[in-house]
């Protein structure tokens, strides 16, 4: 494991995680490029800390739940830092980039009108509900992991998830 | 029990956009740099090449600082010693006590402070090959060699013959290109 440059294991794991991680980062950063920068920084930080996502031996006595939670917590933290810096810069430059960027760079590969409506409804959710939904649906995290990553209880994570689904169901036309 | 199962299935049908092709390559580079920077004193990727020099430079600074302080202390001690020697003849005024010593008293502090560098030795007592590193990517392997040395600097006062020696350990790490590996 000393020479990560020639170690191919992480690429397989990262390829599995990357779409969900990127979507998670884009809850705060509409730009795909910015979100990728954040994911890169978080993953490198995570890898240096744990070395291996699925091998508990590499993280000592800590449980794997916390290690996965750490990765998403890192993405969130770095994205929020980025957002703060970016908003200061945007204020200075008096430009509105985020909205147009969001429309140019969709978060999902939309296949039909039904999916377009669903994605738009998702964007309309409150952020604290949306992040739980993204972590659960597209990243397969448990409520314990979500709670650990967001610094909330498992029950609160589960409640936000249910609120999010209820809000979506209410706002979507029946199929 | 779960009346949201249909909605969850619809949500799972949405495919998040995949990351760019070069993201993995970027992370690979960052991980390689991070691995090579794991040495305790390394703070960043760009500083790695200057690390040996920085360590050595810091030790030189410490060495010269200690040497300067010691030289000052030695000069002060020498002045006091001279004054003590010179006081006794003054307290016992006799013709025999009058010698060239009093005339040297005035010039002694100046002479005592004039320490000039006399010698510098560097003894490498251990060399360790720490294997290959890839700071510039997998195609450019570099071999990391750690040298442990003892450096000694000596100053001498040509007038009084006094000498001052400072010895300290240093550690230097060099990255040497390893062609064909």
Provide structural commentary.
The complex is a heterodimer of chains A (175) and B (181). Chain A is built from 8 helices and no strands. The longest helix of chain A is centred in the middle third of the chain and has 30 residues. With 181 residues, chain B is of the alpha+beta class. Chain B is 43% helix and 27% strand. A 3-stranded antiparallel sheet of chain B has the order 1-2-3, covered by helices on one side. In chain B, strand 1 and strand 2 form a beta hairpin. The longest helix of chain B is centred in the middle third of the chain and has 41 residues. Chain B is elongated, with a radius of gyration of 32 Å. The two termini of chain B are 62 Å apart.
How does the helix and strand content of chain B classify structurally? alpha+beta
Beta-strand proportion of chain A: under 5%
Order of helices and strands of chain A: HHHHHHHH
Helix content of chain A: 55-70%
Mean pLDDT across all amino acids of chain B: 70
Largest sheet of chain B, in brief, is: 3 strands, antiparallel
Instruction: Give the strand line-up of the largest sheet of chain B.
Output: 1-2-3
Biggest interface pair, residues each? Answer: A-B, 44 and 30 residues
Provide the gyration radius of chain B in Å: 32 Å
Stretches with pLDDT under 50, minimum 5 residues of chain B: 39-56, 86-108
Reported for the largest beta sheet of chain A, the result is: none
Shape of chain B: elongated
Topology record:
The complex is a heterodimer of chains A (175) and B (181).
Chain A: H1 9-25, H2 32-50, H3 64-93, H4 98-104, H5 113-123, H6 127-137, H7 143-150, H8 154-171
Helix pairs in contact in A: 1-2, 2-3, 3-7, 6-8, 7-8
Chain B: H1 5-13, H2 22-36, H3 51-91, H4 101-112, E1 116-133, E2 142-156, E3 163-177
Antiparallel strand pairs in B: 1-2, 2-3
Helix pairs in contact in B: 3-4
């Amino acid at each position: 494991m000393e020479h990560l440059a020639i170690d191919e294991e992480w690429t397989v794991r990262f390829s599995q995680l990357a779409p969900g991680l990127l979507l998670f980062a884009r809850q705060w950063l509409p730009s795909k490029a910015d979100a990728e920068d954040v994911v890169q920084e978080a993953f490198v930080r995570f890898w240096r800390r744990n070395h291996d996502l699925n091998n508990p031996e590499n993280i000592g006595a800590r449980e794997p739940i916390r290690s996965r939670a750490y990765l998403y917590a890192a993405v969130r933290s770095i994205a929020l830092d980025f957002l703060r810096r970016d908003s200061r810069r945007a204020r200075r430059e008096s430009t509105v980039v985020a909205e147009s960027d969001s429309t140019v760079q969709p978060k999902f590969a939309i296949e039909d009108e039904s999916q377009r409506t669903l994605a738009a409804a998702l964007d309309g959710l409150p952020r604290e509900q949306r992040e739980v939904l993204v972590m659960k649906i597209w990243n397969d995290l448990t409520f314990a992991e979500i709670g650990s990553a967001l610094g909330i209880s498992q029950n609160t994570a589960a409640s936000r998830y249910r609120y999010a689904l209820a809000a979506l169901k209410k706002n979507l036309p029946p199929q | 029990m779960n009346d949201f199962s249909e909605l969850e299935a619809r949500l799972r049908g949405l495919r998040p956009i995949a990351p760019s092709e070069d993201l993995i390559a970027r992370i690979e580079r960052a991980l390689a740099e991070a691995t090579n920077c794991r040495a305790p004193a390394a703070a960043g990727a760009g500083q790695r090449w200057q690390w040996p020099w920085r360590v050595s430079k810091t030790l030189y600074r410490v060495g010269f600082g200690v040497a300067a302080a010691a030289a000052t202390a030695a000069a002060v001690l020498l002045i006091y010693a001279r004054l003590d020697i010179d006081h006794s003849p003054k307290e016992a005024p006799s013709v025999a006590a009058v010698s060239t010593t009093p005339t040297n008293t005035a010039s002694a502090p100046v002479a005592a402070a004039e320490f000039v560098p006399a010698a510098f030795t560097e003894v490498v007592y251990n060399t360790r090959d720490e294997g290959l590193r890839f700071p510039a990517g997998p195609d450019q392997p570099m071999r990391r060699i750690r040298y442990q040395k003892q450096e000694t600097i000596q100053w001498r006062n040509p007038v009084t013959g006094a000498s001052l020696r400072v010895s300290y350990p240093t550690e230097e790490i060099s990255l040497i290109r390893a062609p064909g590996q």
